[in-house]
Amino acid sequence: MHSKKKTIADVSSWANMMDDLLTHIARLTRFPRHHIRMTAVCRSWRASLADQKINFPAVCLMLREGGNCDNYNFYSMSEEIFDELDLPELRGRRYWGSPFGWLVSHGLNCEIRLFNPFSRATFPLPKNHSLIEKLILSINPEEPNSNCIVFAIYWGFLHRRYIAFAKPGDLAWRTLSYDGDDDDDGFKFLIDVAIYFKCNFYGCLNSGKIVLFEDLHGPHPKAVEFAPQPPNFHGGLTCYLFALGENLCMTCRDPCDDDDDYEYNGYTIFKLEIFKLDMDTKSWGKIYSSGDKSLFLGNCCTFTVAAADYP
Description:
Blueprint: H1 2-15, H2 19-28, H3 32-39, H4 43-48, E1 60-64, E2 71-76, E3 81-86, E4 93-96, E5 103-107, E6 112-115, E7 122-125, E8 131-137, E9 150-155, E10 161-166, E11 174-175, E12 177-178, E13 191-197, E14 200-205, E15 210-214, E16 222-227, E17 238-244, E18 247-255, E19 263-264, E20 267-268, E21 270-278, E22 283-287, E23 293-296, E24 303-306
């Protein structure tokens, strides 16, 4: 009996831990599952940690289990473990990832929202009835004074591909105009990806040209040509923009030369060439090594991480 009373007293004392001490411990946690376990201790802890930012790993692979279940596995490369989460919020929705721990999802009812699978936080975005190809999250929406913008690359009228943007809470998407020449087939401009880099938003056309997004908070948002394509660049390739240290870089997937063996067991082998942009001269230089950085290519975001952080 004495042991049982002591256990109850111990639980009560943990529940009454000071908020400042609890939040300080939470800040020292490195992985989402530690934060989730802390919020599951008791209602008091859950309330105290409601506004506490979760530390997300830069590299976290999301896998869905088979069938129609709502279970998703998140693989942390640093811990080499899987965390299983039940996410009915994603039922019947397409979703795109980001390096910030957030997903951008699109439902059958054309509803779009930001969703955090660990904290279950969500932010609404305007509906879009077009055929969406990509949804790109530029910045972590939970960062202080975050200028969070989501870009949508979609197919519209007459099979034209457009890029529009919106912020959480906006009522409608705003389409970016472009003053460049139309292609022969009538496309306004084919943009592959968008990125937030040093307080500006940039895009990459499939021709390899870099455009700067201007007046996003004004009445006439537009994309203007910022830099030409890299030397000997062949248009129509899949392009990726990413930051490497203080540099804006681009890479593209290009099938190996005809002289090379570019097929292996039925798979096409691609070579990657990385170019660094000089922001002052608007000229490109080829990079032959990423140093201690590992490069991760994604269909909506590309980023680098320090290899030493993932031994």
